[in-house]
Design brief:
Elements lengths: L4 H17 L2 H15 L3 H13 L3 H8 L8 H14 L4 H4 L8 E8 L11 E7 L5 E6 L4 H12 L8 E4 L8 H9 L3 E4 L9 H15 L2
Parallel strand pairs: 1-4, 4-5
Antiparallel strand pairs: 1-2, 2-3
Helix pairs in contact: 1-2, 1-3
Amino acid sequence: MELDLATRRRVTATMVRKYAKATRAEKSAMLGQLCEVNGWHRDHARKALRQAAACPDPAALQRRQRSPVLRYQPEVIEALVKMWAVLDIPMRTWADWDNNVPGFLEVDLVGHDGGDLNGQFCFTLTATDIATGWTENRTVRNKAAKWVFAALVELQGQFPFPVLGIDSDNGSEFINHHLLQWCQDNQITFTRSRPNNSNDGAHVEQKNWAVARRTAGY
């Protein structure tokens, strides 16, 4: 049975005091137990325990993590839609995301096929924070959704700030139920770029070359 977010927070809160005083072996066992109960990755479980220790009140933690969302009136949205259409600008840039706040990530895959697209080959998952440019990478064995999802869950625990939003392209490795459900469970905004508009993900595209290609090549 899948636990709701409030239940997961309560389970995490019950472990905080014991975890702080536990030995290394005991902490490892507790992390395993928390991951099994809540369905989390170990990195995310560690992060959740640290946050619960810093802010024992789950409601206060939620308020601290999520800043107020700006809501546009219908007449403003109508005008903005016309401007976006004329200027060919992705809608999420102005309405959904605050580019001055860290935690909004663009994600993409870089294929290492060596010029031969036949068969399987590795990919590098690149995640770039829009506000700071902080970039994390993980290599996956192919672009199957399960490998990409596991790598993305691991990556989000490596950023020095909470992940508030994820923007991807339209590939099925990103656009799937598992990633959507995970984002909803963790209160992460999930958006995608427009078809045939690769520049919508300009921040991560730049890092694809500067980080992934220069390190691992083609």
